[in-house]
Write a structure and sequence with these properties.
- It is built from 13 helices and no strands.
- With 301 residues, it is an all-alpha fold.
Length: 301
């Protein structure tokens, strides 16, 4: 079960690792609100089509889970997504990555406060991983040119809200009220679309990317970094719990570096290689030990 959870979270991390690349490309043409809207307007129908195909083939019904708490989780994720786009629009990508990936430590702290014991091995893994992440983006040590106070606030808020979303979402996929991860993801994405529609209503007429590169990145953001990432996220979270899942998810940084080398032909600096190794060590260390945890209460509709 734990190994399966790691596999699902690694798949989720692979999909999410393209978020910064897709997001930065689309933000060159659209505002953060427009990207938010199109991301979920494309993703939600795709997610429900997948769920209904599974249902027709004997899978769980779309109504097999309590949808209200999942819609609420989706509203929170909609806010997380908007904060992420707003931060990326105001921050250098390197600094954004270093700050946003402090969320595993926030998840560990939040889980502890909520009664889910976090072992010292997890804390050690968090420390190793944070050092590794900082090393993978050495540009951050050269200053924060291009960053704004608003960008820093948005990024920190993004990290805090994502940590809260991860802790809350665990209760939607564990215990007797857990239900199917794919169905939970579809309802959650629907909640995010509702958030996006409300925000767009106060922002004027939305625009769509006008270039092939922008449109392709928008579709990739919606299908890969949203549908695939969200569904595998819920499946992985069910097996690992929030603290361990958050640490496995930091492999997104290493995977992001790999895409840059494979598809853009860039080379890695020595410090980036060291950082990637530290991230991998941190992730592996977090999975080597199983902390004592309390079984969460089933979610009530």
């Amino acid at each position: 079960s734990k190994k399966l959870g790691v596999i699902w979270m690694l798949l989720s991390a692979s999909a999410y690792s393209m978020f910064t690349i897709f997001g930065k490309t689309v933000l060159e043409e659209l505002s953060a609100v427009d990207v938010l809207l199109w991301r979920f307007l494309i993703a939600v129908p795709a997610a429900w089509i997948f769920v209904f195909i599974r249902f027709r083939r004997g899978g769980p019904s779309p109504l097999s889970v309590a949808f209200k708490p999942r819609l609420l989780a989706g509203l929170v994720f909609g806010l997380v997504s908007w904060l992420g786009f707003a931060a990326l629009d105001r921050m250098p990508g390197a600094l954004y990555i270093v700050i946003i990936y402090t969320y595993p430590a926030m998840v560990a702290v939040g889980s502890t406060f909520l009664g889910r014991a976090t072992s010292r091995h997890i804390w050690m893994a968090v420390g190793i991983t944070l050092v590794g992440i900082a090393c993978t983006v050495p540009e951050v040590f050269q200053g924060t040119d291009g960053a704004t106070v608003a960008g820093l606030i948005f990024t920190l808020s993004n990290a805090v809200m994502y940590a809260a979303y991860m802790i809350f979402s665990e209760r939607l996929v564990t215990g007797s009220g857990g239900g199917d991860g794919f169905v939970s993801s579809a309802w959650s994405l629907t909640g995010s679309l509702i958030f996006a529609l409300v925000v767009t209503a106060f922002s004027g007429t939305p625009q769509f990317p006008t270039t092939f590169n922008g449109a392709g990145s928008m579709i990739g953001l919606a299908l890969i970094s949203t549908v695939v990432a969200s569904m595998t996220f819920f499946l992985g979270l069910r097996h690992l719990g929030p603290a361990s899942a958050a640490l496995v998810a930091t492999s997104e940084v290493v995977l992001g570096l790999m895409w840059v080398v494979l598809f853009l032909g860039d080379s890695l600096k020595a410090i980036q290689v060291v950082g990637a190794i530290l991230v991998i060590i941190g992730v592996a260390w977090s999975q080597r030990f199983t902390p004592q945890t309390k079984t969460p209460e089933p979610t009530k509709a």
